[in-house]
Amino acid sequence: xxxxxxxxxxxxxxxxxxxxxxxxxxxxxxxxxxxxxxxxxxxxxxxxxxxxxxxxxxxxxxxxxxxxxxxxxxxxxxxxxxxxxxxxxxxxxxxxxxxxxxxxxxxxxxxxxxxxxxxxxxxxxxxxxxxxxxxxxxxxxxxxxxxxxxxxxxxxxxxxxxxxxxxxxxxxxxxxxxxxxxxxxxxxxxxxxxxxxxxxxxxxxxxxxxxxxxxxxxxxxxxxxxxxxxxxxxxxxxxxxxxxxxxxxxxxxxxxxxxxxxxxxxxxxxxxxxxxxxxxxxxxxxxxxxxxxxxxxxxxxxxxxxxxxxxxxxxxxxxxxxxxxxxx
Length: 328
Ligand code: PBG
Known about the structure:
Blueprint: H1 12-18, E1 28-34, E2 41-44, E3 47-53, H2 55-67, E4 72-77, H3 97-108, E5 113-115, E6 131-133, E7 136-138, H4 139-156, E8 160-161, H5 170-180, E9 187-194, H6 201-207, H7 232-243, E10 248-252, H8 258-267, E11 272-276, H9 278-289, H10 295-309, E12 313-316, H11 319-326
Parallel strand pairs: 1-3, 1-4, 1-12, 4-5, 8-9, 9-10, 10-11, 11-12
Antiparallel strand pairs: 2-3, 6-7
Helix pairs in contact: 2-3, 4-5, 7-8
The chain binds ligand PBG.
Ligand PBG binds at residues 117, 119, 121, 129, 164-165, 200, 203-204, 221, 277-278.
């Protein structure tokens, strides 16, 4: 036998030399759920190990993550029902607790990368990412709201805006609004290929942001989020986001869409991000808690596979755990 691939697996030293990709905490983004108030740290039942924090607790959490080598954080707000309305106006109120928290976090940790969430759903009484009217999600009307939200976020100090809403034209709308307001340095990590997925459940629990059950409100997000059957369509979205000025192209979810991550990586020059979403993390946690899988090996293998498929940056609820175990 002339060729024996096992020779390159004989020792840890050889395996290390032959290793094709390496995952380090610099690639990871830690999501942080924020609530109003002080002293709050409540675990999310459907996503064990993840918490909703008030800003004082979030500052502690981020400080600990930083000492583990994590530099990237994406913030999501759980908005009290009394602040919600049809147009998500609380989202661009400069005194809202989300923007206040962002200011405090950037003040204390100026060198981290702070990523926002641009979409109506946390602020909307209807629980949709855009304005709902006559049973439809209005595209162009929603863009104006996203622009106000995005500029307010840039003003609060976010480094990257994260439009997660899937309205057509939103990257250009945000880019133009940011530039007009003088925020030429604020970037856009676009949720380019975001699928209408069943794996967002724990996230919607965490934020209380699911579409509400009512006759004139669509029950799902299929008229704006992508059909899970489609890969080529992701390339249309990627081309548009590139032309519209995105700085990162994201695929979401990650594990069920590794082929889409690879296709985007091959097609585009921009860095690719992947969102390893709440349901994907929850499944693994559940299996580990049942004793069916080993977290210490299954968790890093999962993240590594997303990186190998072509994601440069990975948003994952396991970022802190990974950095704790495998950061330097
Ligand atoms: C909504 C948004 C969702 C997630 C991030 N932003 C849910 C949705 O589209 O309904 C899901 C993230 C996760 O599941 O971890 N703008």
